[in-house]
Amino acid sequence: MPKLIDGRTIAEKVYIDLRREIAELKTKGVTPGLAVVLVGDDPASRAYVRSKDKMCRDLGLRSVKLELPASTTQTELLNRVEQLNADASVHGILVQSPPPGHINEEAIVRALDPAKDVDGFHPENVAKLVIDDSSGFVPCTPLGVQRLLIESKIKINGAHVVVLGRSMIVGKPLALLLMQKNENANATVTVVHSRSRHLAEITRSADIIVAAIGRAGFVTGDHVSEGATVIDVGINRVEDAATERGYRLVGDVAFDEVSKIAGAITPVPGGVGPMTIAMLMSNTVKAARQWT
Ligand SMILES: NC(=O)c1ccc[n+]([C@@H]2O[C@H](COP(=O)([O-])OP(=O)(O)OC[C@H]3O[C@@H](n4cnc5c(N)ncnc54)[C@H](OP(=O)(O)O)[C@@H]3O)[C@@H](O)[C@H]2O)c1
Question: The whole model's pTM is what?
Fold first, then answer.
């Protein structure tokens, strides 16, 4: 059996360190504060916002939850962002994605103070990731994937990492992060996407595969070499009448099949997911540290 990489346990470890750091900041008169802005009433977004708010409270962070109606205009939202930028008790700001269709999300991200952009999507933070400037914010899911690998003692340095997916949220920043010039990176990174040819051949040459495409069970045994590490970022709903909700969540990896071949693998749920929120908390604490 492969080693199961347990995201929940690793996230708990992150929280132990964060609690210590938060206590220290409080002795200096700084309580890290995170503002989460939700526009509209998408049930999944609402659930994400609730869990972020709960985690802030558990850790003793200040949580500001701004719930705005779906009819909120671009100008109104920009004004709210400006207010949060100017609020000294707010160190991190996140606008829950996706906003309603009439909102230009990119313009909202650009309006954020880059020093409060704990999601790491502002062009200034993207640029810092490209130039290996560690003062910026790295998007939470890629940061969580790197931390999972480090804590699981899986060597990234010199490894061939194949990332499936090239989104600005996961694939692209993860590729940049893992090819940085430091001991926790230094990977040889290949990125594949929907137009890639010979995909399985490429993934079979990987020491580490990270799947982030949003296709249930896409990565099968045919994609993986014996002993490779497989990190599953995907979260997909598949209908399942036997469950109370009528569906269950699965990853991009056909777990039962791939786990017979992989050396280490993450489950879904309980792998990358818990790390994403842990890294959001970590980025918020990092943002607050800049004020001490
Ligand atoms: N665990 C977490 O905390 C977390 C966080 C974020 C996202 N996710 C999950 O991760 C998955 C990816 O999210 P995302 O936001 O990055 O998705 P996205 O923006 O839809 O991007 C998907 C990427 O996968 C590529 N792709 C799609 N089908 C493919 C195929 N058949 N073969 C190869 N590449 C393919 C696309 O290629 P093209 O660029 O060519 O279209 C694109 O680059 C989703 O399931 C999402 O729910 C999980």
Answer: 0.98
